[in-house]
Amino acid sequence: MTQPLVDLRSDTLTQPTAAMREAMYEAVVGDDGYGEDPTVAKLESLFANLVGKEAAIFVPSGVMANQMAMRVHTRPGDVVISGRTQHVVGFEMGASAANASVQFNFVDDVNGVFNLEEVASVLDAQFDHQPTINLVSLENSHMASGGRTWAPEQITALKKVVGPLPMHLDGARLLNAAVARGVSPKEFTTHVDTVMTCLSKGLCAPVGSLLAGSQVLMDRARIERKRLGGAMRQAGFLAAAGIVALDTMIDRLADDHARAKVLAEAFAQKFPESNYDPAICETNIVSFNHPQARKIVARLEEVGVAGGTVAPQRARFVTSALVDDAAIERAVSAVKSLQI
Ligand SMILES: Cc1ncc(COP(=O)(O)O)c(C=O)c1O
């Protein structure tokens, strides 16, 4: 009998739960373009409370939420400090240039977090004829580094360095970071002006992300959502699943993290030349450098374990509700018997 695929390509492949499907079926909806969908309003206020902000706005995708943030915080030509490998830089098809006409000033983010001296130096260069910085964007957990997390104190320290500049947090996997660090999501958001999170990754909702911030910023974000074509109508059907996600699916992320760790250990043992330390696997992403990364992914796929690459010579495997303990065991034994 052929075994089902162990799908570690992404946590976006997760399926809505039975409770979500039921909530969607039962959802009371209205036209959210008119601000009349009670289920969307409930989800938005749930998220605003979760991250300690005045207001939130429901959007179709994480990319759109990031783009709305770019547009509310900047004007064309503005400069944004961002980690070199952040999603908003490398995985959104140049959206920030196309939608907000901003330029990035990169800082190193190999470990997910910034070196504060480097940030200070970029800010200082404003006094040497270099561009004025208008926004700082960070990502927690940080996908490209393998789901590494910022500690709340590191965000506080960053705020001290950047002073009054606004900060946007791409928290596509903010709740993974919160579960991994054992803290309330609010601890990551006190110093950021806007924060987004995705409902359709580890939390298993089918569609949707949320952006939160002050009421003034969210009023402007609502206009930007419309401009980007993201105002939806009876969106409560989607929001209903999002409510179930926030109400019931956060704690289970710890299982994804534990399984990722098991896989991380298997890869580290198999490929010592990659210098991958499984201790850095804090959340649900196993990502490491290897000259044969694409070959590793292809060979594993041949034996029913799907992963991917996120840069040349960089493999990535993501745990989610699609992958239980038995599936991880199968992935581990496939890794052990790989011939590269
Ligand atoms: C860190 C990060 N930010 C933003 C996004 C964008 O989310 P979406 O796919 O919903 O547009 C992703 C998606 O994978 C992500 O990993």
Description of the structure:
The protein has two domains: 93 residues, Aspartate Aminotransferase, domain 1, CATH 3.90.1150; 231 residues, 3-Layer(aba) Sandwich (Aspartate Aminotransferase, domain 2). The model has no long low-confidence stretch (mean pLDDT 97). It is of the alpha/beta class and 340 residues long. It is built from 14 helices and twelve strands. The chain is globular, with a radius of gyration of 20 Å. Helix 2 runs parallel beside helix 11. The strands form three sheets. It has a seven-stranded mixed β-sheet with strand order 2-8-7-6-5-3-4, sandwiched between helices. The chain starts with 5 loop residues before the first strand and ends with a helix. It binds pyridoxal-5'-phosphate.
Unreliable residue stretches:
none
Order the strands across the largest sheet as they lie in space: 2-8-7-6-5-3-4
Which structural class matches the secondary elements? alpha/beta
CATH superfamily of the largest domain: Type I PLP-dependent aspartate aminotransferase-like (Major domain)
The overall number of domains is: 2
The CATH architecture of the largest domain comes to 3-Layer(aba) Sandwich
CATH topology of the largest domain: Aspartate Aminotransferase, domain 2
Number of strands: 12
As a percent range, the share of strand residues is 15-25%
Helix proportion of residues, in percent?
A: 40-55%
